[in-house]
Amino acid sequence: MMSVETISRRGFLAAGAVGAAMVGVGGFGAVSRQADAAFVRPPGAESNAQLVAACDRCGRCLQACPYGIVTPVPLAENLVAYGTPTLAFDHGCCDFCMQCVDACPTGALAYGGPRERDLGVAVVVKDACVAWDWAGCTVCKDECPVEGAITLDDHDRPVVHPEYCDGCGKCEQVCPSASLRAYDASVEDKGIVVVSRSSEAAQATGAVSSEELASKRTVAVAQANAASPHTKGVHPDGPDATREAGA
């Protein structure tokens, strides 16, 4: 994971200046198109455009996260969103401890918004998911802390229910497909990944291919700022506690 120190203050200021200038010229819409609606953001983030404009790239949210999953957007990936916080679930998941929100000095991450406890939605990647080739793997369903967010179809393959999923990333963290498919260099994705609800990938019905994921996870949809539809319960006891859907 990229450390706070590797992001230069000059880079922060440059990216922030670009974002602010774009807000002045074209409003939040201009920033949203460049900032990319597909980034999965920490709790309390509103639209990507608003976060890019409000975030001063101080890195305090990165330092505050006890699980090390808050990471800065790399400069090579996106100029305008460079240095703003995104989430990486390779080695951890979010339990909504809200320490990143508490650490934010600008309000870019804040309490009370529609995404305070909704980070995104999980999507099954069918050519990476082990259950699509042979039966037996139900790790994502077994480890999911939200009851009803992941179920199995008639072929014992995982099915995500977006209305319950809160995007905590537990499924992506524990997915074993990378190690089980180590023999296949063409498979780069995990079998299940969390995407922004504002991405086209989030609008897909059922599982997607790796190719579809690559082309759709970085494309904003018209409803990018709409409130998410999930009805899941909050998990106050951390990612290992079971929450009742709809509670």
TrEMBL record:
- Protein name, please? 4Fe-4S ferredoxin
Necessary cofactors: [4Fe-4S] cluster
Q: Which Gene3D superfamilies match?
A: 3.30.70.20
What spans are recorded as compositionally biased (Basic and acidic residues)? Answer: 234-247
The protein's UniProt keywords, in alphabetical order, are: 4Fe-4S, Iron, Iron-sulfur, Metal-binding
Under CDD domains, the record lists: DMSOR_beta_like
Q: Could you tell me which residues belong to the region Disordered? A: 220-247
Q: Name one GO molecular function term.
A: 4 iron, 4 sulfur cluster binding
- Organism the protein comes from: Eggerthella lenta
Q: What residues does the 4Fe-4S ferredoxin-type domain cover?
A: 43-75, 85-114, 120-155, 156-185
